[in-house]
Structure formats: C-alpha cells, structure tokens
Amino acid sequence: MGRSRGVTRTLIQVQREAEREARARAAAETRAAREAERAQRAYERALAAEAKEQKRLYQEARAAAVALQNQDLEGRVARLQLLLAGYAVGG
To answer: pLDDT tens digit string along 17-75?
Structure first.
C-alpha cells in the first residue's frame, strides 16, 4: 500500500506541474497577444502621423507654388500696365 500512495502522490505532483506549466504558457500567450496588439496600434498611429505630415508638407508646397505664381502674375500685370501706359502717352 505504501507504494501505491507514493505512485499516486507522484502522479498528482506531475499533473499539478503540468497544469502550472499550461497556465504559465497561457499567460505568456496572453501577454504576447496584448503586446502584439499594442505594437499594431503604435504602428497604425505612426502611419496616421506620417500621412498627416505628408499632407501638411504637400499643402505647404502648394501654397509656396501658388505664392510664386502670384508674384509672377503680378510682375506680368505691372509690365503690361507700363506697356499700355506707354501706348496711351505715345498714341
């Protein structure tokens, strides 16, 4: 009988250890899944920030191009006004 109890006790210990290991694996998997979700959200935030910055830079570049075109147009208008004023005086 003493031997049966020893075997039973050993089997119970083995079973408990297996259960502890299973719980530890499940906890590690849960932590890894949470970390993966956190990393995914951080990646998505970074993508959104990059898209926002690209949009801002595009708008800034367009505004600068329009300002340059406006300056060019103002110069042309001024030259045309001088040209027309010369014809009015000379004509």
So the answer is: 999 999 999 999 999 999 999 999 999 999 999 999 999 999 999 999 999 999 999 99
C-alpha of 84 from chain center: 56
Coil, strand or helix at 36: helix
User: What is the number of other CB atoms lying within 10 angstroms of the CB of residue 38?
Assistant: 10
Q: Is the pTM of this model over 0.85?
A: no
- Read off the tokens for 33: 């899944």
Question: In the 8-state DSSP scheme, what is residue 1?
Answer: -
Separation of alpha carbons 51 and 12, rounded Å: 58
Alpha carbon distance 49, 35 (integer Å): 21
Task: Give residue for tokens 């990393």.
Answer: 39
Find the helix or strand (DSSP H, E) in which 63 lies.
helix 2-90
